[in-house]
Amino acid sequence: MNQINNQFTSIQQVQAQYLSGAENKTKETSAELSFEEVLKAAQDAKLSKESGLRFSKHAAMRLADRNINLTNEQNLRLENGVEKANEKGISESLVLMDSLAFIVNIPNKTVVTAMDQNESESNIFTNIDGAVIV
């Protein structure tokens, strides 16, 4: 083969010069974490994210406006109520806890709104298909 512009004459020369170090790095990286380990970690992270209860922006604003601060025990009771509603096949639930009322989208595990029961003038809750008292 003829050498073009004083460069390499074969692909083997290119591989020898540029890829010899890269091959070793790839082997070292693959020895650190296997695909199975990375996949399991990603799945575990997704499950932990899915298991937690989320608050919509609206619900977070309502909690702040109404000066409602939930304790860890109340958060656990609220999550327990959401799990019970899910077991019964409820999709939009009213969860009553102490003097607080929460509207929760059960499939998304998202609190849509929150209020003190004393603030609700008419005590009428619409667009729910179940209620849980915790």
Automatic annotation (TrEMBL):
Which Pfam families does this chain map to?
Flagellar_put
Q: State the InterPro entries in the record.
A: Flagellar_put (IPR013367)
Keywords for this protein: Cell projection, Cilium, Flagellum
NCBIfam families xref list: flg_new
- What is this protein's name? Flagellar protein
Taxonomic source organism: Roseburia porci
